[in-house]
Amino acid sequence: MNQTNRNYRATFILDNRGKEDSIAEIIDEVKAEITALQGEIAAVEELGKRDFTRVTNPKFSGAPYVQITYSAPGDVPAQLHERLRLNQNVYRVFIQSV
User: What is the mean pLDDT of the chain?
Assistant: First the structure.
């Protein structure tokens, strides 16, 4: 059965504290995860480092944000959350349908 692709905008909060991975390398990892799930990336926008509104760790008060717009089947957002849950370079993931 052929699934219809939907458009999504995912916002990622990246965590590269104490790691040698650059932001571009982490973004490439995330893009590889999306394409592994049959997603097609339309745009990548680096939003820069932003401070958190609610700080839970005083040593981690802000992080780089990245938005990736992509199209994929409807079950991909849940699978992407699950695949990135154990990735130490991705602090938070917000996915919305557009």
Answer: 92
